[in-house]
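Section 3.1: Structural characterization of target chains.
Under the original work plan, the team committed to producing a structural model for every single-chain target entering the pipeline before any wet-lab resources were allocated. The record below documents one such target. The sequence was received from the expression subgroup and is listed exactly as submitted; it comprises 110 residues.
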Amino acid sequence: MAVPDGELEAVGRDAQAVIEAAKAEGVYVFAGGVDEAVPPVLVSADGAVAMGGYPWAPTLDGGFTVLELPSRDEAVAWAARIARACRCEQELRVFGTEPRSQGQGTDRDS
């Protein structure tokens, strides 16, 4: 994100407003970001731990917002809302879930 001087507070406020709108519309699943103060580690199948992430992976910049939406068109519309609020492009991905875990562990299904 390249936030112009003096706009960081407005970006935070606008981004939070989009999250609140997603919650109000019942499409919010979770949002957050990677804690850059905690370095990544690679854990192998035998439990061995090595400092650092995948050497080929780019540095993560920003956060994630996961919404449950009925169509790609609606996902694009929400991504555009987030992009306007954050003043930067958003990468849109489809998140696949393991079918047997659907509906488990969310407040929406309680």
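The first helix runs from residue 8 to 24.
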